[in-house]
Known about the structure:
The complex is a heterodimer of chains A (284) and B (164).
Chain A: E1 5-7, H1 12-22, E2 26-29, H2 35-42, E3 48-51, E4 61-64, E5 67-71, H3 76-81, H4 83-88, H5 90-95, H6 102-105, H7 110-115, H8 124-129, E6 133-138, E7 141-146, H9 147-150, E8 151-153, E9 156-157, E10 164-170, E11 177-184, E12 192-202, E13 208-216, H10 226-232, H11 239-257, H12 263-283
Parallel strand pairs in A: 1-3, 2-3
Antiparallel strand pairs in A: 4-5, 5-10, 6-7, 6-10, 8-9, 11-12, 12-13
Chain B: E1 2-8, E2 11-17, H1 23-30, E3 49-52, E4 55-58, E5 71-73, H2 86-93, H3 103-116, H4 122-128, H5 140-163
Parallel strand pairs in B: 1-5
Antiparallel strand pairs in B: 1-2, 3-4, 3-5
Helix pairs in contact in B: 2-5
Amino acid sequence: xxxxxxxxxxxxxxxxxxxxxxxxxxxxxxxxxxxxxxxxxxxxxxxxxxxxxxxxxxxxxxxxxxxxxxxxxxxxxxxxxxxxxxxxxxxxxxxxxxxxxxxxxxxxxxxxxxxxxxxxxxxxxxxxxxxxxxxxxxxxxxxxxxxxxxxxxxxxxxxxxxxxxxxxxxxxxxxxxxxxxxxxxxxxxxxxxxxxxxxxxxxxxxxxxxxxxxxxxxxxxxxxxxxxxxxxxxxxxxxxxxxxxxxxxxxxxxxxxxxxxxxxxxxxxxxxxxxxxxxxxxxx
Amino acid sequence: xxxxxxxxxxxxxxxxxxxxxxxxxxxxxxxxxxxxxxxxxxxxxxxxxxxxxxxxxxxxxxxxxxxxxxxxxxxxxxxxxxxxxxxxxxxxxxxxxxxxxxxxxxxxxxxxxxxxxxxxxxxxxxxxxxxxxxxxxxxxxxxxxxxxxxxxxxxxxxxxxxxx
Lengths: 284, 164
């Protein structure tokens, strides 16, 4: 038995004050679906477990003044059943559909998924597509962190031990075409080998007027794919053009990761998934 | 140690637990309800599924201290003194059980599903049970059992209405 202490603060302020003093010795726990696995395998090298799962400040999904906010403590089940997200961030809702299993979606939080900084976090591509910024707080104030800055390397977030991820602020998108798809070794309870989110708008002439792409599980940390977005913007999407753009996307991944042994699979699979996800835009 | 108070299978529980144990250890070792099983211990198999505030969760991935203030149902809480729950009745009747190790978890996932969706189709059952592994049955009897349990639950609810 360890002498670890369990702390459940009543509000965010209390949590931040505690972390300001004892952050270095503290493990934050929200849903716990990652922390509990670590606890089981290695134990925790900390003195305190700070349970932030009941903090009201971390709950809720709200839309006001063209700003969509999703609390870091919102569970994947809540994301999947949210009407606000269905009409303003459908890719994020879709990413929650096949996230792990029902039992895990019922307790795991979006904040935990991002803070854990796994390269294959399923909510991340959709957050990239929506230009999400994370609102990060400590006792002295708050700051906004982009998804590209959030992870410094695989499984390492930029959060300091004194900080708590409070919520995500997304750019809401209505209309257009949006989707999230993932490739795993099986359909359910699968770790993503590749995941992808897109949002596309076309103008009256059928040209792509706006495009955002989020690629997951392919790079150690989240990246924007601006060169692919720029390549397609202003063009009428044909099968050949999307295929070519998928090739650029796969090429960008290789540029970041180098030719790892998985590249022989991932390079054509990224191109193929891009084609599959954007094919409805060609047809319509 | 952490003091927790919660409701389990309709009974109040109040106890002191170590801060770093799981809800599963709390229920099995400290409360002594051994129906909930530990399979993988990392949220892959679903054998430890319980219902917390009506939702199916893996008790191996839940910190015991988080049980404080919740309402929990484990497999021991499904049946009444007189009757088995519809899911139990129908799993027995349709051979949804072989070795039985995964069964408590599957029953709890199915129980939560039927509370949320009284008439699930094949796909909905599949999604709700995808976090539960069974190495014996090949699942087809489990699908039949859940579908039959949905029908039985509906019939019982109709009877209750008529009975006023």
